[in-house]
Amino acid sequence: MLASVLAALTLAAAPCSATRADQLGPFYVPNAPVRAKVGTGHVLTGVVRSTRTCRPLARARIELWLAGPEGDYGPAWRATLFSRANGSYRFESHVPPAYSSRPPHIHLRVSARGFRTLVTQYYPRRGQTRGTFALVLRPR
Predict the structure, then answer these.
(1) Where are the domains of the chain?
(2) Of 65, 124, 139, 140, which is least surrounded by CB within 10 A?
């Protein structure tokens, strides 16, 4: 009983505004390996939801890529994962580096059946080793 009440409160309190889109960038490559880890030092978690109902979306495809520790992009720093039944996801990497004039960031491309594909970026704060990023998708 308590668990269902807490779940309902969490759902009601969850933000359901669409996640802000951001640039794809020139380094996107489709078909990254299915894996949830490309390094250690930074953990990104969140929940994929619908703007219409605010309900979690299971099996959303989340593609992630970031610059390697030296500021270069490559296959070792790309991953594809899928949200769990409760919409949650977890991705582990090295701390994203700044490079050129860009601040540290992780690119995300999120797709789910019946929803518009979201392309966005997560920007951790300096020194941050854990982050939470809600991915809220708009229906088609």
Answers:
(1) 16-137
(2) 140
d(CA 18, CA 118): 9
Statement: the pTM of the whole predicted model exceeds 0.90: no
120 within 8 A of 19, measured Cβ to Cβ: yes
Terminal CA-to-CA distance of the chain, rounded, Å?
Answer: 35
The C-alpha atoms of residue 140 and residue 119 are separated, in whole angstroms, by 15
Say if strands 42-50 and 130-132 run parallel, antiparallel, or are unpaired: parallel
Q: Which CATH number fits domain 16-137: 2.60.130.10, 3.40.50.2300, 1.10.260.40, 3.30.450.40?
A: 2.60.130.10
| pLDDT single digits (tens) 3-24 | 443 444 444 445 599 999 999 9
The tokens for 13 are 């309190």
Name the DSSP letter for residue 98.
Answer: P
Q: Which residues contact 124 (CB under 8 A, 6 or more apart)?
A: 42, 95, 96, 104, 105, 106, 131
Q: How many CA atoms lie within 13 A of 93 on its CB side?
A: 26
Whole-number Å distance between alpha carbons of 106 and 67:
8
